Amino acid sequence: MPATVVVGAQWGDEGKGKIVDLLAQHSDVVCRYQGGPNAGHTIVVGDETFKIRAAPSGVISGKVSVIGAGCVVDPEVLIDELDELDARGIDTSKVVVSGNAHLIMPWHIAIDQASERRLGKLQIGTTRRGIGPCYADKASRIGIRVQDVLDPKILRQKIEVALAEKNVWLERVYEVEGFDLDEVATRYEGYARTLRQIVGDTSLLVDEALTAGKDVLFEGAQATLLDLDHGTYPFVTSSNPIASGAATGIGIGPTRIDRVLGVAKAYVTRVGEGPFPSEIEGSNQERLRNLGGEFGTVTGRSRRCGWLDLVALRYAVRVNGLTSLALTKLDVLSDFDELPVCVAYRLRDGSQTPHFPAHQSDFHHATPVWETLAGWREAIDGAASRMELPEPARRYVEFVERELKVPVELVGVGAGRQHVLA
Ligand code: IMP
Question: How far apart are CA 359 and CA 87, in angstroms?
Fold first, then answer.
């Protein structure tokens, strides 16, 4: 299957990095199609751990690694990341960035931080990396793109125009310091030296790869429920992580996509604010958090933990057109006698639904309808195939398949590459 999209099926942090890393071994090109350094993918290779924020996870395997037009690029983060990987012996020479991707500028980060502060209790809980303000400028058609740094005159002009407005906004509305034109322009002219070497026509590159029958992997950042249009708005990111975002974010037609693999944890986590029906009440939440090491890669924040939510996953199957699932971190559940799974939501009028509510207040007030499955209480990280899992663990996976009507193609039972069972 030449074109595969890998997409987070929950609220992010499902372990996509590891799955992408695994599939990248058999791919020729790996692409990021949306998001920016709000993503944080952890990849364990042997005894080395890589934390990737800006580049596609395929970079670890030295693959052609594309950052598409739908992405937002913080040049400082990207360049530091590539330098660090180079220093660790990873070949980053095949990274290509779309000239149409938008640049995160210092004021985007300042506005993200100030706006969250100002929202107080109503804050979204963003990663404060400038993602939302950068996409907002893109939609307002006042953004600065990667290709703009290629011409110092255009770059300076665009920064000057932007600062004339952003500084007023920062100083008068948010009461924080503005930015100096010369300082920002010099800094970004410096980044241009690296960006110039890696900018390319990524839509054409991917099109040609597909036409030549090469294997291309599209790596979603964030996840389905954080999608700007189809997620739990306003507690979402500002781009489209869902599978169709791969087509718009890279610049290929949707008919080119052959396969969509959803990645879901065997339980659920969520960072930031917003409703979370299957969130665990009581001490099991902290127990699960510690067992699963559920602390943010980018922000270090504690992740909220819940039992598996099949209503939300059913929705992910629908909006992404998932053709299969990878169920990660099944080993983390090995410590529990019983495993509640949310199979439906009970709504305010007492009715039950298997479907994700279309209206926010229904979702806000939804409570889970549980079905309790048996735990297995034994280590499973030594299993070499799905057949070697203890029976209750196999039943857990089969239950997910039956409820969602989608095959579970991969099962994660530990941190390393060898811990993914096909
Ligand atoms: P932003 O993407 O920084 O604007 O944050 C918006 C929302 O998306 C917040 O709830 C973040 O916690 C969440 N978010 C963004 N990136 C990730 C991620 O990689 N994993 C999990 N949540 C994320």
Answer: 49
